[in-house]
Design brief:
Protein name: Protein-export membrane protein SecG
Oligomer: single chain
Function: Involved in protein export. Participates in an early event of protein translocation.
Subcellular location: Cell membrane
Number of helices: 3
Family: Belongs to the SecG family.
Radius of gyration: 33 Å
Structural class: mainly alpha
Largest sheet: none
Strand content: under 5%
GO cellular component, one term: plasma membrane
Length: about 130
């Protein structure tokens, strides 16, 4: 179902691009500077066949966009992407496991116990 919708969506997108490119340019930004009576600002714009086809394709494109969104939302409600690959998610219960020393700092090579105030540890030089 999703593949069919996606193919129809792509065909509509290409058709919409083609129909928009086939339309005659009104000249100027949004047809405001044309000078003729059939521009965007006129009381009633001319509804050409290409204009009607453009509207129909645009409405169908939006409808397939909404349908694809609904299908994707239903698929994602079943679980996470990681569930599909069999990856275990980390547990969020409790605190993380700390190393034996209780510190997250890396060990200093050659220093027995580098915590301040204990004996046997190498003292750090004073900061300048």
């Amino acid at each position: 179902m999703e593949n069919v919708l996606l193919i129809v969506h792509m065909i509509l997108a290409l058709g919409l691009i083609g129909v928009v490119l086939l339309q005659r340019s009104e000249g100027g930004g949004l047809g405001l500077g044309g000078g003729g009576g059939g521009g965007l600002v006129s009381a009633r714009g001319a509804a050409t066949a290409l204009g009607k086809v453009t509207w129909a394709l645009a409405i169908a494109f939006i409808a397939t966009s909404i349908a694809l969104t609904i299908v994707a939302a239903q698929k994602s409600a079943s679980g996470s992407v990681l569930d599909r690959f069999g990856v275990d998610t980390p547990s969020t219960s409790g605190t993380p496991d700390l190393p034996a020393g209780g510190s997250l700092l890396p060990p200093v090579p050659g220093a027995g116990d580098a915590t301040p105030g204990t004996s046997g540890g190498a003292a750090l030089p004073p900061a300048d």
